[in-house]
Amino acid sequence: MSNTRSRLHKGEENTEINISPMIDMVFILLIFFIVTTVFVEEEGLNVDKPTPQPPETEQKEKDEPVLLRITSNNQVEFEGNTVTLNRVETIVRNALSQADVPVIMQVQRGAVSGVMIQVMDRAKIGGAEKISVTSID
């Protein structure tokens, strides 16, 4: 029995895979591709970009939004003056005839929502397509 064991031990080969030549080959290919790569610097077109112009003061004044304020005691104000619902329609129509300006409603806390809806309706009759609503204290 010892005889068969010794044959098995002698018959076994210690096989190892040597990967160092493969690693060397990979590095050689990497160096080859790096050296043979052509670095081309592409030329672009020169473009004359326009210089931005400061906005004109007249244009800035025309594009100011229509600010309608609804106070906590349900009064509608425009530029510090109390206005009626019929006047809201006229104000919005006049502002939109000059330029496409936004309509912003500033509603104080405590204002009745019905008044806000009425002002929105009058502004839409005046031509406002979008109305922004903000709350103020």
Structural write-up:
The chain is α/β, with parallel strands linked by helices. It has a domain of 75 residues: Nucleotidyltransferase, domain 5 (2-Layer Sandwich), CATH 3.30.420. Helix content is 44%, strand content 17%. It contains five helices and five strands; from the N terminus they run αααβββαβαβ. It has a five-stranded mixed beta sheet with strand order 3-2-1-4-5, with helices on one face. Helix 5 links the parallel strand 4 and strand 5. Helix 4 crosses helix 5. The longest helix has 17 residues. The chain is elongated and about 105 Å long. The termini are far apart.
Q: What share of residues are in beta strands?
A: 15-25%
Helix content: 40-55%
CATH 2nd-level architecture of the domain at 62-136 = 2-Layer Sandwich
What sort of overall outline do the alpha carbons produce when their principal axes are compared? Answer: elongated
Secondary-structure-derived class? alpha/beta
Helices and strands, in order, run as HHHEEEHEHE
Counting DSSP E segments of at least 2 residues, the number of strands comes to 5
